[in-house]
Amino acid sequence: MTMTDTNEKHSRKKPASRGGNMRLLSLALFGLALLLSPGHDAAAQAWPDRPVTMIVPFPAGSAVDFLARATASELSDRLGKPFIVENRTGAGGNIGGAAVAKAKPDGYTLLFGTPSPIAMNKLMYKGLTYDSEKDFIPVALVAKSPLMITTRLDFPAKTFAELIDYAKKNPGKVTVGNPGNGTLGHITAELVQQFTGTKMTAVAYRGTVPLMTDLLGGQVDVSVDFMPTYVPQVKENKLKALAVTTSTRSKSLPDVPTVQEVGFKGFEASAWYAMVAPTGTPPEIIGRINKIVNDFLKTDKTKALLEQNTLEGIGGSPEDLKAFIAAELKKWKPVIEEAKIEM
Predict the structure, then answer these.
(1) Which of 16, 57, 185, 272 could form a disulfide with 225 if both were Cys (CB 3.0 to 4.6 A apart)?
(2) What 8-state DSSP symbol labels residue 92?
(3) Over the stretch 18-45, which tens digit does the pLDDT of each residue have?
(4) Which class for 1: exposed (0-12), middle (13-18), buried (19 or more C-beta within 10 A)?
(5) Are residues 136 and 152 in the same domain?
(6) Residue 9 lies in a domain
(7) Nearest to 86 by CA among 75, 77, 99
(8) What is the domain extent for residue 233?
(9) Are residues 82 and 225 in the same domain?
(10) Mean pLDDT computed over 78-101
(11) Which has the closest alpha carbon to 210: 48, 29, 59?
């Protein structure tokens, strides 16, 4: 045997056994699993290890701001880290909505909002910088409340029927305020006009507080807005409530009729308040927030607080909120298209 033959013999490698191949494959798969999963899970398990920002896209003092702060306080207490409410107003809620849509989906930025930035604005705004259906993941539907049609005390119409009669006789002369272009108050005012065959002049404000201030001061005739902020003014006889927009009367003002009761069957509109997060937020974090919110809504203390502010706690799963938003978009799209509401 030559030296070359000897070298070749010793340089040949034995083929790997079938068991060795299986062990190598198992190790490779285990390594891949470790590579893909630990960062995501570890971050979700550690959350929150610093303050969480809850953006409210409307001014302080509004109904949504009050509810957001109550919810943030509960989350802070339960999770041991501050949940800080930050008001980012403007563009019908789009400024705050866009900030959350573009935020890192790590559970440290949430949106506590109303129908406009969470759903409706995509039907009205051209050039919107985010898509609420794609860029948000539902967390929880927190509460609902009626909208209310309210007038200044010295307005000629003292009932909803009288308002409709007056508006028909004076087309375009009645000014109807709303808390912002494209808000549910704005859309509901358009629905009122479509149902009643009237034409009023819309006046948009930057939130509920300035709208109510002008209504009290007589600068606008009528408001269509979320109900909670107006209840004290009505009870103190500073404003006149003509109707609520839900299918049943509100416990807060049981003498105020619904729009349906005064002759417009099928009319219904509800304000709602919900939490969403940037798409991609870990489901473990979404689930933890959802559970705390649902537990919060079930307590007697919370129920009493909500009732005092004309709110009805809802709760439910993130999937429930997703289905609800889809139904709202389907309901309001034809109203918005007929009214030609474009921003």
Answers:
(1) 185
(2) G
(3) 555 555 554 454 444 444 545 556 778 8
(4) exposed
(5) no
(6) no
(7) 99
(8) 146-244
(9) no
(10) 95
(11) 59
